[in-house]
Design a protein that fits this description.
Alpha-ketoacid_DH_E1_comp, Rossmann fold, alpha/beta
Length: 240
Amino acid sequence: QGRISFYMTNYGEEGTHVGSAAALDDADLVFGQYREAGVLLYRGYPLELFMAQCYGNARDPGKGRQMPVHYGCPERHFVTISSPLATQIPQDLGCFCGFGAFWGVLVGPIVFFCPNNGCAISTPTSEQHRGDGIAARGPGYGLLSIRVDGNDVFAVYNATREARRRAVAENQPFLIEAMTYRIGHHSTSDDSSAYRSVDEVNYWDKQDHPISRLRHYLGHRGWWDEQQERDWRKSSRKMV
């Protein structure tokens, strides 16, 4: 409707949000990026405040000082989002170690959670670096590292829970690379059909979407059915 200036979508990456958030303690600080609103939603951040932030109105906790989808909530231990990617790394290190303690890059209970969604705005990861992805680079920095299926919410949960346990117990950082796919456009100002095929997007949407995979699993176990699905969709739309 054009009522907000823009929006950053996160379709297809929900498994990384919920799986990682569920594995953390509520008091754990999260330094998220603009495509991770699901972490805040999991922690109980109300939809009304999500929308207030996007509008930048009087109810926005940031009072309109940020661009849309740059949420933050001290009460839920979610640090306000900044636009440039990877700024969260020095921010969380500084928060834990104190100003100037850059030696902390190799010391401290920190989990670096890296969702690898396949592309930047328009550049696929295959054209951004050589080698075996992000997780393979961790050991060179002294990081315990693991790669996980980011569209499997249970795999993400278990990997994050173990990473957190070891980070706290051993007082050292841990790197998780969660392989996923950005089904939506980069933002509402982007047309991703200019750099990837519709068939590719449809495949991930139909065959490997984290919500669909979870729904099929629950149905197979007898914990979810079509009527529950219809009721949930109806109540969710009404809530939104």
